[in-house]
Amino acid sequence: MGENGDGRTILEGRGLVRGYVSGRVRTPVLEGLDLAVRAGELTLISGPSGCGKSTLLAILSGLLRPEAGRVHALGEDLWALDARARERFRLRHTGFVFQGFNLFPALTALEQVQLPLAYLGLDAHTAQARAAAALHEVGLGRQLRLRPAELSGGEKQRVAIARAVAKQPRLLFADEPTSALDGTNGAAVIDILHRVARTHDAAVLCVSHDPRLHAHADRILHMEDGRILDDVRAPAAARTDRQGETA
Ligand SMILES: Nc1ncnc2c1ncn2[C@@H]1O[C@H](COP(=O)(O)OP(=O)(O)OP(=O)(O)O)[C@@H](O)[C@H]1O
Q1: pTM assigned to the model
Q2: A GO molecular function for this record (predicted)?
C-alpha cells in the first residue's frame, strides 16, 4: 500500500465521495478525495470551515459510509467489512480525541482511561497498569485520582489522549483537539500527539483550522472543494530529522 511505495502508508482513502441530502437537494462535500497517511507521523488536515474535514475523519475511521471510493486501513478494505468486523476493527485499532474531551464527570482520570480497556478484554490489573502508564506518558502521573472538575482544560484533553492511546491503536484520529484550549495548552497537546505518532508508530490524523498548530505537524494536507489541494512537509519534520530524534 502507499502512493509512493514507501511502505509506511497505513491509512489510505481513494476516490472518496460523500454528500448530504436535505429534501431534494444533495450538497456535495467530498468529491473524489485521495489521501495517504503514514505511520509515525502527525498529519494535519486544514481547510475552511464546512469543507468536510469531520466528514472525512468519520469515513476514514469507519463511522460514516462513503457513497463511492475505498478506505484501506492496516491492510483491510474498511468499507468491504461487515458491520461487526468493522466495529471490531475500530475497537482494536482506532483511537479518538475530540474537541470537547468527552470525559465522564464522576470518574477519576485513571478510571476514564481504564474503562475502555475492559472492552478489549484486559483483566482489571493489566488495564489499571496500562491506564496509569498512559497517564504518565501524557504528564499526568500525579493526577490519577482527580475527576474532570478538578482538572484544567489542557489536563482534561491529556486524559482524553491517554484514553485513546492506552489501547495502543495504530490509527489515532483527533478532531479539533486544541480549539477549546489556549495557545500554550494547545501546543502541549499537539506536541503529545506528535510524540505519540513516533513512539507508537501510529498514524495520527488531526483535523484543525488552528494555524498555530502547523509548526508542530510533520505534514499538512490542505483541503478545499472536496479534495486535498496541497500536501506539505512541515517544519516539525525538518526539525526532528535534524536532531535525529526518534521518540
Ligand atoms: N449530518 C449532516 N447532515 C447534513 N449536512 C451535514 C451533516 N454533517 C455535515 N454536513 C454539512 O457538510 C459540510 C461539511 O461538514 P463537516 O463538518 O465535515 O466540515 P468541517 O470542515 O469539519 O467543518 P468545521 O471546520 O466547521 O468543523 C458542511 O456544509 C455541513 O453543513
Answers
A1: 0.89
A2: ATP binding
